[in-house]
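Lab notebook: predicted structure, single chain.

Context: the supervisor wants predicted structures on file for every construct in the current expression panel, including those that have not yet been purified. This is the next one on the list. No modifications to the sequence; it matches the entry in the shared construct table.
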Amino acid sequence: MNLFNILRQHVAAQPEAIASRSSRRIVTYRKFWSRIERATARLKDEWHVRPGDTVAYWGRGHQDALMLYIAVARCGAKLLPLEHASLHQDSSVILRNIPAVLLLHDDETIFDVPPAASVVANLSSLIATRCHHTPLVTEDVHQPSLLSLVIEKDHVLQAEEHSLHQLTSAASADATCTFRIAEALFDADIFAPQVVPVLVAGGTILFR
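Prediction complete. Output recorded below exactly as produced.
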């Protein structure tokens, strides 16, 4: 399955259906895809994200992080989610082994020491203002787009790459119409088995 095409089909068939909802914002599928396109343009033409690059997300299951992931995948890049305290503590090791060209963080995040990324910016800046570029985008669902990390007891870093094709192929056909994000969005037992199937089905992801 091609999630990019599926989302475009949702926009055409049910543009006012709710893709994501939080206490701050309701995002229809029309807005959802529009913001993904805006984010893609900013990533490519303002932050110069290229195929094969790594973009890090430092936060805790933010509504905009879902759009960030899909935009990063459209760029042919990989999202490195740093959502847990253990990953924050080991961030210097992680970012030394997996250099990020860009790190986006939840707006309320305060760093004692800035992460070692080329560019560090607020997540809200991804879609806060319109990007006037319209870059050429070559979508490839088989390109690695998500990095799963495990830090072992001796601080050995284990990283596993996943493509959007792998994540959507594992989506259950009997997905529920809603799913609530309690904390982390990109955990292995949350994102592929729960979040992606809801998007495929045209349902709603609920955020705090």
